[in-house]
Amino acid sequence: GRVVEQAPVAALFAQPGHPYTRGLLRSAVPADSVRGSRLAAIAGSIPRLDALPGGCRFHPRCVSADATCASETPPLLEIGARSIACWHAFEAEPPPAAPRATGGVVEQPIHIVSRERRPHLAQDSAARGAPLVNPSRGAPLVEAVRLSKHFASGRGLLADSPFSRAPVVRALDDVSIAIARGETFGLVGESGCGKSTLGRVLMQLEKPTHGDVRFAGKSLQLMRGSERQQVRREMQMIFQDPYSSIDPRWTVGEVIAEPLVAHGERNTGALNDRVEALLGLVGLDPSARSKHVHEFSGGQRQRIGIARAMALEPSFVLADEAVSALDLSVQAQVINLLSDLRERLKLTTLFIGHGLNVVRHLSDRIGVMYLGRLVEVAPADELFRRPAHHYTRALIASIPVADPARRSVVGGSRDDAASRAIGELPSPTAPPPGCHFHPRCPAATDRCRSEAPALAPLASGRVVACHFPL
Q: How far separated are the first and last CA of the chain, in Å rounded?
């Protein structure tokens, strides 16, 4: 509720004076981050507006805070061309202290006892048809085999009938991917390209029009009864909006315990113990179990959603835009949490996102989708270093660079007109013939307009669907 710093843009980025400003800038995921490393995150979470701290309101989260900060409110003073409210403006910060709990969030490494996977997940991968597995990681855990999903855009009883003449949206068009055990596969593309539809079909929330989904080499469509129920334990989802995906009438304990109850756990003591362990796993105090979700910040709600997804000890987790609704400081905390859980629990993950820097930071490989088709798959660093498809290049060129001083350094080719996609995304009910991207591609030829390119292997473990890859 207060202005803590105000300055010209270039000056703010060159020398942020307030510790909160510095923390926000450090929390952004840079394009050149070390993939998988821990991000700098502001400790704790924003306090409740009905329980604001005295003195400087940032002092409970500030590494430079002292007794003066806790007791006296700093005035907003003009220093040259900027205004700043801080008793320690521009001072060097002390080295980070040991992790501490602030505002209900504990930022610390997660210690988990290792466990054996369930015996029914045999290393059965006789499945064929999804050639895009990462060969360095062995057999795939989750496979999409030539998946297509079509939606009728008309209405009425006959809208979904094969005899209907209503336009059809080809949300997925012959998509194959294979995600190896322990791998994080990132999926990017513009809104409407089919990313979330692919996730829903993989999770069996939507039935495919054509194709197959396989888990540990076995077709999910052919599973019945207890076998299908057991596999549902292994496949869980983290949603984009933690508030709308959680019943607001339930306590946090009830929300997290629901999957356990649905799969047969009835012992109240065991449920309570498991809920408290899960809250600790995601850095929340066990006392949170008796509260309701409206009492928590956005980042804490997402931690609750993650705890719910982890309740059944899944092997595979789909994170659909799991950090896109969070502000910078909270986003960094949740990204660190997801990285910790992946390493400790040996999770296999499909991470869907719009923020390309975030997807790169978390992913081993990245797939790029456009109008229902997969156009490129490559190791994360290789894809950013040398994009092969013109659409991939356009996406990377569109990543905004906030710091004015860095725009001239990393902009370069990004300002090159040849890197930019032309026009808008076409309607999915009437996709262009040939290569779907050709109306927006600066390198399109007559061949691109008439002939759809197939995914073909290139060097460095990548595949690309382009007649003239870069």
A: 49
